[in-house]
Design a protein that fits this description.
The complex is a heterodimer of chains A (274) and B (156). With 274 residues, chain A is of the alpha+beta class. Chain A has helices at residues 3-16, 25-37, 44-53, 58-61, 158-161, 207-214; strands spanning 40-41, 79-85, 88-91, 95-96, 104-109, 116-120, 131-134, 149-156, 169-173, 189-194, 223-227, 236-241, 244-253, 259-267. Chain A has two domains: 38-62 and 181-267, no CATH class; 73-173, Immunoglobulin-like (Sandwich), CATH 2.60.40. Chain A has a six-stranded antiparallel sheet with strand order 1-10-14-13-12-11. In chain A, strands 4-9-8-6-7 form a five-stranded mixed sheet. Chain A is globular and about 60 Å long. Chain B has 156 residues and is mostly helical. Classes of the chains: A alpha+beta (274), B mainly alpha (156).
Chain lengths: 274, 156
């Protein structure tokens, strides 16, 4: 394949990619303003749950919304089984439990075409709403980093109903083994930041030590520890002060076995620079 | 926030091209749109430092590709759904899968040079390396893609 051949193929592929919606600058300006102000307000469901965290012992948060059902924990499936057919989305496992690397979905696409698989983030976890993944009957996939509790999901034929918000069904993720360590900040006003690196940047091996180094103004009794799922693909570290999570740090791989600090969130005023 | 008319022009002129380039990598509308919006937002936030550079569209593309890649990693493995949607689309999916399987630096060089249409010198500036290194990445990528597509034909 020579230079011109590849250029033509890439151009053809680009032309066949679905066109985006009309460019809308308003959300871009909003995001830029937030980046500049480094300050956001946690809204809606997440804020309500954060307030509850003040009075709920931290240990209970691991199973928030998904406490063990007596006698049924061992029988819980390790993956959410979903069937997508002409009638829509059906869940064969109304309850399931996470694995150490996260929540697994097994999607059986019984339609003739491709579908996207979407999970709406109902629990204020670190992942944003509207995740997509191809509905592929072969894939259990690796774990998704979503907080246990109620999760809404659907299969969608984007060629027919792009933009529709209908058709979600719910599954309840219980966490009888207490795998999930909450990343939900115990405050309403949150500051965040992200870090850019040179393409060849190399990271460190100990995310907890790196987070401890990054966050200035830690108290001597602050607890800095791994959070999320114990074997999730990309580590998250949290800082706990007085029983509340006051900061989180997400890491991504440097491609060579090291970790680079990616995004941080902290309660406003809790640490220097936030 | 006051928006410089030059940024507005950049946004309107480049949005679709950046989006399509990112979509080729991630094949996911939501991830692509999120990554492109975030990249333009970062560009706007840094406009005083970036606005005068000739390769600003490339900077946005490169940033959006990195953000999309990061989203894919967070959300686990991304596999192509099996389908028979027609020869043209099959060829595209094959190419997308091939590009997706390239090492990160080769992938970045291919997308910036062939999809975003940046000259080698600008790709090198964005990738913080020599022009010769970019050419080497592109040559290896072309060979890998050739083998990928020929291999798929034999297997298929």
């Amino acid at each position: 394949m020579d230079d011109d051949d590849l250029r033509l193929r890439v151009k053809a592929a680009l032309q066949r990619a679905p066109a985006p919606g009309a460019p809308d600058m308003a959300p871009v300006v909003d995001r830029a303003r937030r980046l500049r102000g480094r300050r956001v307000v946690v809204a809606g469901v997440a804020a309500a749950v954060a307030a509850a965290a003040v009075v709920v012992p931290l240990a209970l948060l691991a199973g928030l919304g998904g406490g063990p059902s007596a006698g049924s924990a061992a029988a819980l499936p390790d993956a959410v089984r979903v069937v997508c057919d002409a009638t829509g989305t059906r869940i064969l496992t109304p309850e399931a439990r996470p694995q150490p690397d996260g929540i697994h979905f097994r999607v059986d696409n019984r339609t003739a075409g491709d579908l996207s698989f979407q999970v709406a983030d109902a629990g204020g976890s670190t992942a944003p709403a509207g995740l997509h993944e191809p509905a592929d009957p072969r894939s259990g996939g690796s774990g998704w980093t979503l907080a246990p509790g109620r999760i809404d999901l659907r299969c969608q034929d984007e060629s027919k109903d792009a933009g529709s918000k209908a058709g979600y069904v719910s599954v309840r993720i219980l966490d009888p083994r207490g795998l999930w360590v909450s990343t939900r900040l115990g405050c309403q006003e949150v500051a965040g930041g992200s870090i850019d690196y040179k393409p060849d940047a190399r990271g460190g091996s100990d995310p907890v030590a790196m987070a401890r180094q990054h966050f200035e103004g830690l108290h001597s009794d602050d607890v800095v520890e791994r959070a999320g799922f114990p074997e999730q693909a990309y580590p998250t570290v949290r800082v706990v002060r007085g029983g509340q999570v006051i900061a989180t740090a997400d890491f991504h791989s440097d491609g060579h076995g090291g970790w680079l600090l990616d995004q941080t969130m902290a309660c406003v005023g809790a640490l220097q620079g936030y | 926030m006051r928006v410089d008319p030059r940024f507005e022009r950049l946004f309107l002129e480049e949005y679709e091209r950046v989006y399509r380039t990112v979509f080729v990598l991630c094949r996911d509308r939501a991830i692509a749109e999120d990554a492109v919006q975030e990249a333009f937002a970062r560009c706007l936030e840094r406009w005083n430092r970036l606005g005068d550079r000739p390769w600003i569209g490339g900077w946005v593309t490169s940033t959006a590709l990195n953000l999309a890649r990061r989203s894919l990693r967070r959300r686990g493995r991304f596999e192509a759904a099996p389908s028979s949607p027609g020869k043209d689309v099959e060829a595209s999916i094959d190419l997308w899968a091939g590009i997706g399987s390239l090492p990160r630096r080769q992938q970045e060089a291919v997308l910036l040079h062939y999809a975003a249409d940046l000259p080698i010198a600008e790709v090198a500036a964005l990738m913080n390396c020599q022009e010769g290194t970019v050419k080497a990445h592109l040559a290896r990528a072309r060979e890998s893609l050739r083998q990928h597509m020929e291999g798929d034909r034999v297997d298929g």
